[in-house]
Each structure stands twice: as C-alpha cells, then as structure tokens.
Amino acid sequence: MTAFFALATSLLWGLADFGGGLLTRRTPALTVVVASQTIAAVVLGAIVVATGGWSAAGPQLWFAAAAGLVGPVALLSFYKALALGPMGVVSPLGSLGVAVPITVGLVLGERPGLMQFAGIAIAVVGVVLAGGPQLRGAPVQRQAILLTLLAALGFGTVFALIAEASSTITGLFLALFVQRVTNVAAGGAALYVSVKRGNPALPEGGFPWGSLPALAFVGLADVAANGTYSIAAQHGPVTVAAVLASLYPVVTALAARGLLSERLRGIQAAGAGLALVGTVLLATG
C-alpha cells in the first residue's frame, strides 16, 4: 500500500509541476501559485463541510499550518533559483529535499533492510540524474545554489510535516484544507509585496480565464499528491514513502517528452532507468 500511494504521489506531483511550468510561461509564478491553491482551498472547504471534517480538529493541525507556510517559501525560492540558473544544475539539486524525511524516519527508529537501503540510494541518484544535471558550462551563482538548497530543505520539510498532520481520512481533508488556506495567505502576502515593488500580477491581457481549468488541475493535483503521500507515510516506512514520492521529476521529464516532444538527454534517460530500478528494490524489499 505504501508503494502504491507513494508512486501515485510522484505521478500527481510530476503532472502538477509540468502544468505549473507551462502556466508560468504566460502568467507570473506567484499568481499561478495563489490562483491554483485558492481553487484547491475552495474545493477542500466544500469537502470538509460535507464530511463534517471540523470534528477532527486538534493540535496536529499545526503541522498542516506549518506545511502551508513552508511550502510557498520553498516554491518561490525554487522559482528564483531557476531564474538565476542554470536550470540543469538547479532542478536536480531541488530534489535533494528527500533527505529531510529520510532523516526524520531514521531518527524515529525506522531501519530499512539492506535491499531498501540500496533502493533508496539508487532511486535518489536516478532522480538527480533525471533532472538532467549540467556537468559543464557556465558557472553557477552562489545565490542560485543557496536558494536551491533552501527550496530543497523546504520541500523536504513539507514532506515531513504533512505526514504528521492527520491520522484519519476525515482529518486528512481538514489538514489539507488548513494547509491550502495557509498557502493562499502566505502566497497572497508575497504577491501583494511583489506588486507593490512594481512587478505585474497578471499578463498583459488580464486574468487568464482560459487557463482556469489548467489552474484547477494544478491545484487539485497538488492537493491529491499531499493526500496520497500522507496515506503512504502512515501505512509504511517514511523512508520508503519519501523516496518513492520524490520520483516526480522523472514524471515531469516524461510528460515533457510525451506532450511537448522534448528530447530526453542521455543522462536523463539513464536517471529514469535508475529511478525505476530503485523503485523496484524499494517495492520488493
């Protein structure tokens, strides 16, 4: 069950990242984040009301609120690092956030078997290579490296926090709602500051109403991914769930290959293959 839900997480996150990347080509990244997360918050709010999720409120919701604060910071740091580039260095480094939940799992007493340790190592290397790391070329700005490491730490922290945010399905809906409301508040504040500094909040043609279905998909896929990851972490070792869920860069690369006809570099294809081998070892170990 852990492997199934964790792999579902990587699929959903990978597709959400792919969709978000396409949207940010036409609309400012902050606007994409706030709009997509607002749609997700509205849908989750309706689900919480329909299921009576308020009854599951408790201290664990602080974990969800913390994840909601950390998530936008990590995402914005990542976007800024991508802007500074080169992307061939930034993108693979961002996936190293998986070290955070792995460390948390080990501290809490999880002890994967030898086969699973091998799977973790192979899968992490595969994920990094699938991002197409740039091994030569232009030097990397120190600020880009620092921002990328901050983003990776943030992504990994969200992994760890969301795993502790609920213990029931009803509570999970409420936790995801709280996380999304916090996301919107934090992202909205950042967008307000950005606009005050003279940056546009919308493209030249105004709000992209035609992109509303895509924004909804990105927001809801991200929510679903958080939910499936929480379930995966609750039903199995966090160390395994985190690594399998972190395969989303492979999904994003394959989506770009299939839908945009982008060619995978040799190092990316090798990384995808290694990630698959690591997945098999983790799932069978």
TrEMBL record:
Residues 3-130, 144-283 form the EamA domain. The chain crosses the membrane at residues 28-49, 61-79, 114-132, 144-163, 169-195, 207-232, 238-260. Pfam families: EamA (PF00892). It comes from the Bacteria. This is EamA domain-containing protein. The keyword Transmembrane applies. Belongs to the EamA transporter family. The lineage of its organism: Bacteria, Bacillati, Actinomycetota, Actinomycetes, Kitasatosporales. It comes from Streptomyces dengpaensis. Signal peptide: none annotated. Keywords: Membrane, Transmembrane, Transmembrane helix.
